[in-house]
Write a structure and sequence with these properties.
By secondary structure, the protein is an alpha+beta fold. It is 56% helix and 7% strand. The chain has 2 domains: 2-82, Glutaredoxin; 93-223, Glutathione S-transferase Yfyf (Class Pi), Chain A, domain 2.
Length: 225
């Protein structure tokens, strides 16, 4: 398999963590990226496969013919099908459905607040930035209740944990960090950071940011030494 990602791709990092957790034989290909030009020019394989012109893209040319897919959630599902062990969705149907919903909400409910902050880092008091931070804080409140006394968000360790970890990493970078009001969620993040697959991927992202002169949230700085 070949996984096309980028040094600051949240969704690519999700897929890479999942591949590492599954111990899949995946060749990681980092597409060209610069802070000013971002992903221009686009990698030709990304352009060919994904009409959205984005990483991650996965190619599997193993037995059964070539497969070319995009979107981190679709890649999760493929990984779970081709290598069920260790499982990264809960086995029980309702728990699995809850985990899938949490993964979806991380991408589609929480992360849009962070995307709005990306263009407002120099204007933290802009009304749109205030609304975005409030939206992120409310999501943290919800996740604090969800994790509760559990070790992981959906009971067993899952793609939901991977998705929200990477999303909140960007939230912390963009001025919407978790706070002392979320002690259980902060403890969950510490457990996530201690997982080798997570630490390797997040640490590499942190080192890239440092190479570009960017500051890191404390939890990410610890992984980037």
């Amino acid at each position: 398999m070949k996984l096309y990602s980028g040094p600051l791709s949240m969704f690519g990092a999700k897929a890479e963590i999942a591949a590492r957790e599954k111990r899949l034989d995946v060749e990681l290909i980092m597409v060209p990226f610069e802070m000013k030009r971002l992903y221009e020019p686009k990698h030709p394989e990304v352009l060919r496969i994904n009409p959205k012109r984005q990483v991650p893209v996965l190619i599997d040319d193993g037995p059964g013919g070539d497969l070319e897919i995009f979107d981190s959630t679709q890649i999760f599902e493929y990984f779970e099908t081709v290598k069920p062990e260790p499982p990264l969705w809960p086995i029980e149907p309702k728990a699995r459905a809850r985990a899938r919903l949490l993964e979806h909400k991380s991408d589609e409910v929480y992360f849009p607040h962070i995307i709005r902050l990306m263009g407002l880092q120099g204007a933290p008091e802009d009304p749109a930035a205030v609304v975005a931070r409030d939206g992120a804080a409310k999501f943290y409140d919800e996740m604090e209740q969800i994790v509760g006394e559990q070790e992981w968000l959906a009971g067993s360790y899952s793609y939901a944990d991977i998705a929200f970890y990477m999303a909140q990493l960007f939230g912390a970078r963009m001025g919407a960090p978790m706070t002392d009001a979320h002690p259980k969620l902060n403890a969950w993040r510490d457990r996530m950071s201690a997982r080798p697959a997570v630490g390797q991927v997040a640490g590499a992202m942190g080192r890239y940011l440092l190479s570009q002169g960017r500051t890191l949230p404390p939890f990410l700085a610890k992984l980037s030494n």
